[in-house]
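Following up on my earlier message about zinc ion. Here are the inputs again, as you asked, copied directly from the submission form:
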Amino acid sequence: MRVATGALSHETSTFTPVPTTRESYEARQGFLRGDEILTHFRGANTPIGGFIAGADAHGFELIPTICAEPHPSGPTPRALFDEILDELLDGIAAAGAIDGVLLELHGAMVAEGVDDGEGHILEAVRRLVGPAVPIVAQLDIHSNISHRMVAIADVLIGRETYPEVDMAARGRECADVLQRILGEGLRPEMALCQLPMAWGMNQVTAHPPMRQAIEYLHQIEARPGIVCASIATCFPLADIPDMGASVYVVADCDRALAQACADELGAWIFERRADWQLAMPTTADLLPAAAAAGSHPVIFADRNDNTGGGSPGDSTGMLQAFLEADLEDACVLYIVDPEVIAICQAAGVGAVLDLDVGGKSSPLQGAPCRMRAEVVALSDGAFRYDGPM
Ligand SMILES: [Zn+2]
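Thanks, got it. Here's what our run produced:
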């Protein structure tokens, strides 16, 4: 079997001032093309790593196209989006006669004038390959799933762990389902239950109640006729009509069964809608509790300036609270400020400088922090992830 594969994946915040440019598509792991995609991801815990493992197991010939995965940031400019999508389509077209398509998409991509990025991508791929070639896609857990996506794709499979350590496992599952379609006559029917709910922070799958939600999901997947099922906790930083949590289920040749299961789990999640939210205290509120904890380190997360969700990363709120509390032996993990970094790099390690740090990308990020600082270390900032993700 000949299977075209590729990735066009971006988590888009429609609220951030961080632009998405051609350079953004090169910055993360490079804009990969052709065989370098297979070399890069073989054995990696990523969706394409899972596609490759599945292809090896089932004897698929994988034909790689493009892998375009910028860091989370703002909407992709329309001309750039069209250009990259055209390159994906050209790659699939150049593959010639194919039996299937395995795609890595995010589920929360927005381009200028395209609110439903994945619906748009899937529609273009469907137009190219025709109705008979199955399209199976692996999605993030933070997806905003549209009816259009579910109508066009044959199978969508979302991640079911948070942190998302099951990327390769879900990619492998996509390849396994494609094998069942191509080799065993599986006829997938997919249904969606959209929930009028933005999921809060309570989504770590090792903890209740998220653990119960995933157990329920597995119980549904074990039912006769069910092929796979997914929960999308949504990506709330997107001002688009389809923003929201959802459940989507695939059944063999039985759309009504898929819909009934999606609605059942959807209702269970919505009944517990208050449970998915967590209190959001301020840094100043938390400092006394941290001091009273008696053991260290105590770690605070500034979820509202999460660069992993497209934020600029130069909020000074936490730094300011630490300075005002006169903390010693405290550390703020990052303040994204290229201007200050350039000054520090020019001055070198050991220099003592008066600096205005952070707070430059938007008035929402707080005012720059005035400080006298010593440069204790410098690096180019390039690093490689370690650990299960
Ligand atoms: Zn995610």
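One observation from looking it over: The longest strand covers residues 61-68. Hope that helps, and feel free to reply on this thread.
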